[in-house]
């Protein structure tokens, strides 16, 4: 029976091998490579959260980095001010709730006010600057321009019994890997649910959806809050792998996450990871090779990919019948 | 080759792209120049140095990634570079302290954060820039000073020190004001300066300085003297000649310094990178940093990083700016304070070199 | 005036119309009949050039326009009233009327006043955004828009849709009149058989993308396909 | 079921509703005709809450809905088909139907995909509309007439108590128009329905009472035959030989 | 009294700077539906044109002429090669123009180096307005803004070219079916909007830092202006510039500037919430 499934569904083989390869990665590479991949997987979760709103609900967010940054800051601040054992868990919850709350506030304000489309995007773009300014001037809490670094190191496990320091690349890597798979499955469940279906209908014509009896602003706030929470979660995971500074909320970061999703393929979920990994490794490779020119190449590449692969890598793969590899919904 | 295996690697992290890219290229050249100089005079403990250079895109994230790579994958023995404070803080905390590798930061800053055993501050902290500068300004132009800074820690601390010094020297801070980073229209700010009728306008503005000064002149404030701790060889070309002429600067190094060490340094540097090549105080600090690392390593007698770090405290070096030394208690450099005036052609006229000034900082190694 | 030989049109890789051949003579009023989804709209889009022909030839006034751009076809004198009207929603009625003046010409001019003699209601709405017009008014505007130009051939896709019965009859008269005055030729897609009959003499029946019958409208009305789908079978 | 009382609405200088009064009984099918631009679609916009009247009341099941939001009115059981077909072009035919069928459920049902037996109703509609072969097609690729049918299917699945159809047969062949009329008569039998239509054959076939709107008021009401005889209606609407 | 007059002039001058710098953005964004993240770089190129003139020893006034022409031509080139393929994919234009902005910045760095550029002042001194001294150049900027706005209005609302552009934006394929050569109008529309960006950069060059990164700051502000004013309407740009510029001048007179800036953006959000289509929408 199982054999039969495996035989008929090459997808399972490919996914299984991919999973094993990911599990084995830290064992066969250096700490640097491990933390690099962990960081990129964190970015993948961040991109996934954007795909949920951008790819599926048509909410254009040019300031998604706000939520990533808010998550990271919430994590850092919580670790700094909650000095007891097991604080990491609270910090992570905090890092999910704070961006979610910002998302709900913003969503309540704008979606209930019927602000949508590019308007919404540009408002979030403008807010990026505001949140950055707020962080910089509240330097007592956030460390201001210098960034936030004097907090207790995040630890997982059972306090007192067995603890894992997230600053260890391997621990961070497996944590992030599990989180990435969990977030992917959650997102997949959401978009495949009836809620996900309605969200996609809202993307196309929100007025029409309303005539069918759906409270459109509410549903938009819900999906937006979920995405913001997920972005915040990725921000929290980023803390042991990177550095908390106002740079996390830059417009560049908001732009680059759009690029990751677009390159991977909008509205495919898995494309968020594919795009993030592809672009990030490409960037790492190019900037190692060409210290000065790499950014120019990235610009050219971004243009070419968008012109040549309008549906992203996953869309392209779909067309060339690599269907079995990518577990996207067949429509 | 056998020789290649013996090289000792030093990592340079530069803002080659992004907001800080004004500084990256000249810093990279300075570090490269220092390494070449050391190599051609026999290297360190008989081994040649090799330079690693990476671009951080002026971002802490990439800064961490690249410096981790230089240390973990390439085996760099020390890190050098960076201007932006967020990148500095990131590299100091997440790379230097974590992987126990010395990191030399070449730029003026407020001091106090980032400190630690592996962090070597080679730039001036506020007291080094201001101790002699403020009395000089009061005496030369008058007691009334107006300060404007961007709204973050370095300007805030600097302006605080200005205020204290003014009190001590019979001056008066007639106004202070903090502005956002992306302030692009300065008309309101300038109006308030004008109303306060200061003798000296003293901005602590990084990115927006050029806009501010351009508009300052436009509003007819050209008569009031401008004092700055930021003005250097890289900044000066941004101003039209009529605006830069007469600006008062406090720095620890200038290309136009006339002493044998500097003359040799500049001559060699221009020979290597062309007549138009520019060094500013950060570049010189980076050059000094590499030499200090060499001295520490030689003093330690081995390439063991801990020994090198131990050897750093109290070392001194005869730098292009004059003799400098590392304060053992803080790993901060004692630097010269030089006051200069900008000429219309963009060169600096050195007015006074106050010699080595010890840094005052909370940092403890 | 218009000759179509062996034409294939479709969307991307899906072919909808296959080997269509038809002609519209000078001043002739031709109708195209067929049930829903058989490719009538697709064919008109192929003729105006919104969709590329993958095979075959389109000749207009003696010149081959198969490869011509859609805007050049319009400038050569083909006017198109699409199904679903497609007026310029956010622009005023006046601007919509002006937008048709490049048809059969080469510059954007002002519309001729005679369009108001066809549809007087538009005159009171000149500065209203076209998107806020009622459905029927938009349909009239779409017709008035092409009539502002100097089309030699009109492609009409279900022009009676959403228009009240009395005006449908008027439109038939207007089209007849313009044909008499200016020798306008017409290719009409229509479900309303009565309307089709009242203006056209000759027609084609299209089924699954191919022409299956041709002849006078009266004959076609007897055709089995037409009988089955375009009349009330009880 | 639906009472419209003394409804007024102006757009700038244009009076579209001028004291309109209409009463539709529970289970009744009512046909609304009237010249182009006389305010029929506007009436639907008012009932569904898309626009608010200047004055007057709209009562559905006795409740005045004038101040309610669009989705709240939809949740009261008002379902609408638009004048030009409005479907979700990027979704499949089936997804369109599912969304319509589940519009009035609460959020928990939505996220848990609990459909409460909507599947069988969807199958039923797919069969009735003969859409089985298209069920997994992108609905945006359907032809005009097919989209009209799909939207009618969506309206039917929305569990409506009051159905508003704006020109449901526009662009359909006569045979399909007839089938649509039959479909409405069968499936909607016993449901309160308002139909706007210019297709006289369809109106006749519907065998429902007809209200003629003119300049924001009811001009006359009656069976189709009565209306067709009315001199004034012929003059302003039907033309000389309908 | 003096404070009032000067502060009002400051408000007007700031508003006109904002209007001038966001006009081209508004045309591309509001009218062509393209979110042009490279607009800041077009602005930067305009400023570099003036600096290049100074460097060549020519009068910087030539820069004011050269900038719109060169930048307009570059805009047309971008349209022909990239934007043209993306009109039906508005979000992708955002990503592609992000790529373009990187490319322009890096190419400028390669050609001019990473450092700051200097430019000569175009005008110095001040003029007496209502009895008070005000910088002549700022008055010149106000004047130029008024002229450019009028010209743009005339172009878009009074000429057949403007009508064509608006038809194309409204419904591309239908406009073609009515005989309008959309590729030509697109190219010119994008070119003219780019030229506006270049001109704004040239005009602003004596007042701002000239370096490869200078466009970024103006881009974000420009978008806020366009949004607050209302997309797709040129009146909107004026209204948006007036509200944001006047508001910033007024509030920063009273409050800590950083707080003023935060308040301004939050205010913009409130305005958008209350008037989702912008002030003029
Ligand atoms: N954009 C599109 N992409 C792919 N297929 C399409 C597209 N538009 C229409 N089709 C398909 O082409 C076929 C013909 O459509 P067309 O609109 O030409 O029919 P029609 O004869 O005009 O029908 P109707 O009378 O309903 O308007 C239909 O089966 C439809 O599904
Ligand atoms: N938002 C609006 N602003 C201005 N006028 C409007 C607006 N909406 C509708 N109108 C006008 O109100 C009138 C009534 O329009 P409505 O769409 O209700 O007509 P209708 O009876 O449905 O006509 P049709 O049979 O042609 O669809 C029309 O003249 C229309 O131009
Ligand atoms: Mg059709
Ligand atoms: Mg209507």
Structure description:
Chain D: This is ATP-binding cassette domain-containing protein. Chain D: One of its GO terms (cellular component) is plasma membrane. The complex is a heteropentamer of chains A (about 325), B (about 375), C (about 230), D (about 240) and E (about 280). With about 375 residues, chain B is an alpha/beta fold. Chain B has helices at about 1-5, 25-40, 60-75, 85-100, 125-130, 135-140, 155-170, 185-195, 210-220, 240-245, 260-275, 280-300, 305-310, and strands spanning about 10-15, 50-55, 80, 105, 120, 145-150, 170-180, 200-205, 225-230, 250, 315-320, 320-325, 330-340, 350-355. In chain C, the strands form two sheets. A six-stranded mixed beta sheet of chain C has the order 6-7-8-3-9-10, with helices on both faces. Chain C has a four-stranded antiparallel beta sheet with strand order 2-1-4-5, covered by helices on one side. Chain C has helices at about 40-50, 70-75, 95-100, 115-120, 135-145, 165-180, 195-200, 215-220, 225-230; strands at about 1-10, 15-25, 30-35, 55-60, 65, 80, 155, 185-190, 200-205, 210-215. Chain D has about 240 residues and is an alpha/beta fold. Chain D has two domains: about 1-75 and about 160-240, P-loop containing nucleotide triphosphate hydrolases (Rossmann fold); about 85-160, no CATH class. In chain D, about 35% of the residues lie in helices and about 25% in strands. Chain D has a six-stranded mixed beta sheet, with helices on both faces. Chain D has a four-stranded antiparallel beta sheet with strand order 2-1-4-5, with helices on one face. Chain D starts with a strand and ends with a helix. Chains in contact: A-B, A-D, A-E, B-E, C-D, C-E. The interface of B and E includes residues 22, 25, 208, 237 and 239 of B. The site of one magnesium ion (MG) has 4 residues of chain D, from helix 1.
């Amino acid at each position: 029976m199982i054999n039969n499934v495996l035989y008929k569904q090459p997808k399972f083989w490919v996914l299984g091998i991919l999973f094993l390869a990911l599990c084995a990665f830290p064992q066969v590479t250096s700490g640097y490579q491990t933390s690099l991949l962990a960081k990129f997987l964190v970015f993948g979760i961040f991109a996934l959260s954007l795909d949920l709103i951008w790819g599926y609900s048509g909410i254009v967010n040019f300031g998604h980095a706000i939520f990533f940054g808010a998550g990271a800051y919430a994590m850092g601040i919580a670790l700094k001010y909650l000095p007891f054992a097991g604080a990491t868990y609270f910090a992570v919850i905090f890092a999910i709730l704070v961006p979610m709350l910002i998302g709900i506030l913003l969503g309540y304000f704008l979606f209930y006010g019927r602000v949508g489309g590019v308007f919404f995007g540009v408002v979030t773009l403008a807010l990026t600057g505001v949140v950055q300014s707020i962080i910089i001037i509240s330097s007592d809490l956030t460390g201001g321009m210098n960034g936030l670094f004097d907090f207790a190191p995040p630890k997982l496990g059972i306090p007192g019994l067995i603890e894992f320091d997230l600053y260890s690349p391997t621990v961070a890597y497996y944590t992030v890997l599990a989180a990435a798979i969990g977030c992917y499955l959650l997102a997949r469940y959401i978009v495949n649910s009836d809620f996900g279906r309605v969200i996609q209908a809202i993307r196309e014509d929100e007025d029409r959806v309303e005539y069918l009896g759906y409270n459109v602003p509410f549903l938009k706030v819900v999906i937006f809050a979920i995405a913001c929470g997920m972005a915040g979660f990725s921000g929290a995971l980023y803390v042991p792998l990177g550095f908390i500074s106002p740079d996390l909320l830059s417009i560049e970061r908001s732009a680059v996450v759009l690029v990751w999703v677009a390159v991977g393929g909008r509205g495919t979920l898995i494309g968020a990871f594919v795009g993030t990994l592809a672009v990030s490794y490409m960037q790492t490779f190019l900037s190692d090779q060409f210290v000065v020119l790499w950014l120019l190449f990235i610009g050219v590449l971004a243009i070419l990919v968008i012109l040549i692969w309008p549906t992203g890598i996953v869309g392209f793969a779909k067309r060339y019948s690599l269907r079995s590899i990518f577990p996207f919904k067949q429509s | 080759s056998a020789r290649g295996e013996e090289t000792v690697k030093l990592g340079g992290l530069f803002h080659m792209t992004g907001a800080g890219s004004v500084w990256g290229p000249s810093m990279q050249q300075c570090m490269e120049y220092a390494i070449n100089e050391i190599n051609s005079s026999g290297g360190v403990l008989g081994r040649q140095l090799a330079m690693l250079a990476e671009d951080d895109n002026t971002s802490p994230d990439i800064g961490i990634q690249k410096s981790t790579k230089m240390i973990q994958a390439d085996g760099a023995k020390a890190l050098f570079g960076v201007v932006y404070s967020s990148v500095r803080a990131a590299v100091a905390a997440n790379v230097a302290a974590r992987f126990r590798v010395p990191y030399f930061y070449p730029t003026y800053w407020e001091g106090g954060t980032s400190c630690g055993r592996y962090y070597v501050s080679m730039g001036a902290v506020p007291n080094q820039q201001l101790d002699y500068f403020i009395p000089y300004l009061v005496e030369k132009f008058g007691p009334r000073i107006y300060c404007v800074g961007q709204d973050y820690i370095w300007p805030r601390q600097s302006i605080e020190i200005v205020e204290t010094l003014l009190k001590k020297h019979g001056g008066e801070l007639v106004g202070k004001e903090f502005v956002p980073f992306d302030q692009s229209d300065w008309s309101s700010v300038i109006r308030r300066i004008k109303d306060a009728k200061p003798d000296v306008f003293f901005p602590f503005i990084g990115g927006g300085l050029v806009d501010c000064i351009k508009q300052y002149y436009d509003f007819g404030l050209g008569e009031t003297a401008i004092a700055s701790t930021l003005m250097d060889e890289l900044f000066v070309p941004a101003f039209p000649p009529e605006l830069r002429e007469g600006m008062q600067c406090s720095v620890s190094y200038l290309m136009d310094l006339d002493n044998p060490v500097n003359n040799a340094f500049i001559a060699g540097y221009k020979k290597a990178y062309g007549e138009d090549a520019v060094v500013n105080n950060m570049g010189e600090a980076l050059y000094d940093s590499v030499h200090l690392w060499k001295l520490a390593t030689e003093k330690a007698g081995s390439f063991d990083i801990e020994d090198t770090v131990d050897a750093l405290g109290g070392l001194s070096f005869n730098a292009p700016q004059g003799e400098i030394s590392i304060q053992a208690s803080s790993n901060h450099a004692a630097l010269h304070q030089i006051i200069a005036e900008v000429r219309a052609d963009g060169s600096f006229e050195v007015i006074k070199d106050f010699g080595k000034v010890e840094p005052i900082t909370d940092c403890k190694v | 005036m218009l000759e179509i030989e062996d034409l294939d049109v479709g969307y991307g890789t899906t072919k909808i119309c296959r080997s269509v051949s038809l002609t519209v003579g000078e001043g002739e009023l031709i109708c195209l009949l067929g049930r829903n989804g058989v490719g009538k709209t697709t064919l008109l889009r192929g003729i105006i050039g919104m969709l590329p022909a993958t095979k075959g030839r389109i000749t207009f006034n003696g010149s081959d326009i198969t490869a011509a751009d859609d805007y050049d076809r319009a400038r050569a004198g083909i006017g198109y009233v699409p199904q679903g009207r497609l007026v310029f929603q956010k622009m005023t009625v006046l601007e919509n009327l002006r937008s048709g003046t490049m048809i059969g010409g080469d510059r954007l001019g002002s519309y001729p006043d005679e369009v108001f003699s066809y549809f007087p209601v538009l005159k009171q709405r000149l500065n209203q955004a076209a998107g806020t017009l009622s459905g029927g008014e938009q349909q009239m505007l779409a017709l008035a828009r092409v009539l502002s130009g100097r089309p030699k051939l009109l492609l009409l896709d279900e022009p009676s849709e959403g228009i009240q019965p009395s005006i449908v009859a008027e439109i038939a008269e207007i089209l007849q009149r313009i044909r008499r005055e200016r020798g306008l030729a017409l290719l009409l897609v229509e479900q309303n058989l009565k309307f089709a009959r009242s203006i056209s003499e000759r027609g084609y029946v299209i089924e699954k993308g191919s022409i299956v019958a041709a002849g006078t409208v009266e004959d076609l009305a007897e055709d089995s396909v037409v009988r089955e789908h375009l009349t009330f079978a009880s | 079921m639906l009472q419209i009382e003394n409804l007024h609405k102006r757009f700038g200088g244009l009076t579209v509703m001028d004291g309109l009064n209409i009463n539709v009984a529970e289970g009744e099918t009512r046909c609304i005709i009237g010249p182009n631009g006389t305010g029929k679609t506007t009436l639907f916009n008012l009932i569904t809450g898309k626009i608010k009247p200047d004055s007057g009341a709209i009562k559905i099941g006795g409740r005045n809905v004038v101040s309610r939001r669009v989705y709240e009115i939809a949740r009261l059981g008002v379902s609408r088909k638009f004048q030009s077909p409005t479907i979700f072009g990027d979704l499949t035919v089936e997804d369109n139907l599912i969304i319509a069928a589940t519009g009035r459920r609460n959020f928990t049902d939505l996220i848990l995909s609990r459909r409460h037996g909507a599947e069988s109703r969807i199958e039923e509609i797919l069969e009735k509309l003969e859409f089985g072969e298209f069920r997994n097609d992108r609905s945006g690729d359907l032809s005009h007439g097919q989209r009209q049918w799909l939207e009618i299917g969506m309206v039917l699945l929305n569990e409506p108590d009051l159905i508003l159809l704006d020109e449901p047969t526009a662009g359909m062949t006569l045979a399909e128009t007839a089938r649509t009329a039959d479909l409405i008569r069968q499936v909607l039998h016993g449901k309160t329905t308002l139909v706007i239509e210019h297709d006289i054959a369809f109106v006749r076939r519907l065998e429902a009472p007809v209200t003629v709107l003119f300049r924001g008021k009811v001009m006359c009401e009656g069976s189709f035959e009565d209306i067709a005889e009315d001199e004034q209606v012929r003059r302003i609407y039907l033309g000389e030989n309908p | 009294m003096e404070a009032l007059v000067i502060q009002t002039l400051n408000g007007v001058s700031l508003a006109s700077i904002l209007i001038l710098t966001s006009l081209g953005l508004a045309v591309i964004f509001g009218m062509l539906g393209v979110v042009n993240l490279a607009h800041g770089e077009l602005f930067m190129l305009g400023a570099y044109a003036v600096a290049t003139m100074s460097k060549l020893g020519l009068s910087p006034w030539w820069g004011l002429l050269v900038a719109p022409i060169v930048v307009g031509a570059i805009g047309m080139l971008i349209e022909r090669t990239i934007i043209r393929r993306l009109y039906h994919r508005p979000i992708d234009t955002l990503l592609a123009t992000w790529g373009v902005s990187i490319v322009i910045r890096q190419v400028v760095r390669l050609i001019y180096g990473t450092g700051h550029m200097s430019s000569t002042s175009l005008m110095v001194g001040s003029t007496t307005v209502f009895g008070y001294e005000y910088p002549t150049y700022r008055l010149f900027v106000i004047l130029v803004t008024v002229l450019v706005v009028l010209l743009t209005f005339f172009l878009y609302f009074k000429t057949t070219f403007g009508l064509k552009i608006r038809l194309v934006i409204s419904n591309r394929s239908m406009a073609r079916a009515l005989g309008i050569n959309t590729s030509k109008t697109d190219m010119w529309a994008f070119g003219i909007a780019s030229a506006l960006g270049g001109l704004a950069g040239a005009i602003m060059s004596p007042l701002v830092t000239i370096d490869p990164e200078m466009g970024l700051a103006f881009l974000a502000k420009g978008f806020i202006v366009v949004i607050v004013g209302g997309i797709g309407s040129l009146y909107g740009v004026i209204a948006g510039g007036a509200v944001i510029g006047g508001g910033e001048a007024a509030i920063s007179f009273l409050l800590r500037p950083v707080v003023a800036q935060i308040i301004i953006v939050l205010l913009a959000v409130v305005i958008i919430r209350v008037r989702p289509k912008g002030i003029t929408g």
